[in-house]
Amino acid sequence: xxxxxxxxxxxxxxxxxxxxxxxxxxxxxxxxxxxxxxxxxxxxxxxxxxxxxxxxxxxxxxxxxxxxxxxxxxxxxxxxxxxxxxxxxxxxxxxxxxxxxxxxxxxxxxxxxxxxxxxxxxxxxxxxxxxxxxxxxxxxxxxxxxxxxxxxxxxxxxxxxxxxxxxxxxxxxxxxxxxxxxxxxxxxxxxxxxxxxxxxxxxxxxxxxxxxxxxxxxxxxxxxxxxxxxxxxxxxxxxxxxxxx
Length: 245
What we know:
alpha/beta, Rossmann fold, 6-stranded mixed sheet, 7 helices, SGNH_hydro_sf, SGNH_hydro, hydrolase activity, acting on ester bonds, SGNH hydrolase-type esterase domain-containing protein
């Protein structure tokens, strides 16, 4: 309630700061390079990466240095990775949901999802965000046969140098609330995990716009996701090989 009251009182200033930030922040392109392919050796792992500008690699020059490329490179030591990236700048959860019917009828094992920042800046409610994320998780399992989904917590927007105060604080608090929704869903829904990357607000790890990840963040983010995937597959292998009681 206190946060809501503060936001209402600050709304005229926040609106002006939002317009000012959009006008002065450089618009970086999505990373160049392949958005699907096959790499590596070992058991087949079919990987789908969905999301927003961070998933699309804004802040990296080439997809090899972005999230998708880092994931594939780090997984390729263990698996034959057949992967596909479906992401675009500005994507919200609702945008991705609307695009699923045209995404094809391919089957994947793992989905990595990066969504939420545009939902925060778009002003949707926590309840709407939670409902949309629940629908997305269900659709991924039913439509694409996803065996495990890795959600990504929202970045520390309260530390983004591109955002002036108090806009930075307000969006940061909202991002924390949205991340808590994702954390709760990852605990309540089967075959779902949350990846929460701690960059500690290190400016040197961010892109030139002060808003998007830089290659060092993408590498760290990918490493944490790979750890989740490897643990998940190791657990499944142990369960499969365990003798019946």
